[in-house]
Amino acid sequence: TAPLSIRGIVKIHPGPVCALRGVDLEIPEGMFGLLGPNGAGKSTFMNIVAGLIEPTAGKVLLDGTDIVENPRFMRERLGYLPQDFGFYPDLSGRAMLEFMLKMKGVTGPKGRRALADELLERVNLTSAASRKVGGYSGGMRQRLGLAQAIAGNPRVLIVDEPTAGLDPEERQRFYRLLAEMSAGRVVLLSTHIVEDVSTLCPRLAVIRSGEVVADTTPSAARNAVDGLIFEGFVADAELPAFAKQHRLISAVLNEGRNNRVRVFVGNGMSAPMGFARSVGTLEDAYLVLMRCPSHEVPAALSHALVDSVMTPLVAGGNA
Fold first, then answer.
1. N or C: which end of the chain has fewer CB within 10 A?
2. pTM score of the predicted model
């Protein structure tokens, strides 16, 4: 049994609005990605796993303990980095972290100041410890947030949209840091950015409209659409008519004149004239799940897949 087991989770908000529709997941140690658009139910799922809200039905088991019945068990073992983390801009990084440790009731054998300095070193912020947080870059703020999240050596670390707004260099630095922090604990990464999952996660689930539509690995998802993706160019004026005739996956403006277009060509479909077969990517697989009717999605992608041999910690490759 996986350390974190999600069984039949349903959440119905007043209205009624069904935010989650029977979610089942077995989440192992290491990085696990939850990929989906805004409004898909990711935040509701994270809040239930964190013990912050109760599901309408279902169980969440951490190392065999039902945290729906005993939410304190999770909270005592949880580190959480929310998407928007509030800092006091006039405090130094060290003072801000000490304050957060005090609020969490966490200290170390040598005191809270020594623990704060140790955590700042782990997230590579020692040189900026005396600087005001208001002068930190987005990446530095995220690393400070991660420092408080790992205080107390949590069993479960939840990270919500951690790279939104980071520049490419900061994003890569944060990736390496998260990968280092995943050893020996469950790290649940919620994001709508495919690159985050492609770079970090050996396993992922795709959620759409409150349902898990894939439970797979990056390599299995890419393989499921490989050979079914075609790429070509379409003029801007012709794009609306083109989209009515083909399963358009993505369209990116190219040099301001026309669009580099990728389409999904499933069973019984024909590739557009002039389009060439392209290597499938994780982003292609994700967009097929988001944009194509369920009966057109390849069975190897839509069915729950778990590789018999777990892939390495950093499952990089094509995004």
1. N
2. 0.89
